[in-house]
Amino acid sequence: MSNAKIKVTLIKSVNGRLANHKACVKGLGLRRINHTVEVIDTPENRGMINKAYYLLRVEG
């Protein structure tokens, strides 16, 4: 099992967004604009990233 990491950065505000998109951003551990976290590359995390892709920058 691989423990590959993905760097995810919040680049847009979650104000006025759909509730489930806000929940995905929170689930990834992002708190504020320009906050970056490293998450493990799992299908669950990929799904949250894909749901709110337009709010995020993804590296790696």
Automatic annotation (TrEMBL):
One of its GO terms (biological process) is translation. One of its GO terms (molecular function) is structural constituent of ribosome. Keywords: Ribonucleoprotein, Ribosomal protein. Transmembrane segments: none annotated. SUPFAM superfamilies: Ribosomal protein L30p/L7e. Residues 6-55 form the Large ribosomal subunit protein uL30-like ferredoxin-like fold domain. InterPro entries: Ribo_uL30_ferredoxin-like_sf, Ribosomal_uL30_bac-type, Ribosomal_uL30_ferredoxin-like. The keyword Transmembrane does not apply. It holds the Pfam family Ribosomal_L30. GO terms for cellular component: cytosolic large ribosomal subunit. NCBIfam families: rpmD_bact. Belongs to the universal ribosomal protein uL30 family. Part of the 50S ribosomal subunit. This is Large ribosomal subunit protein uL30. It comes from Pseudomonas linyingensis. The gene is rpmD.
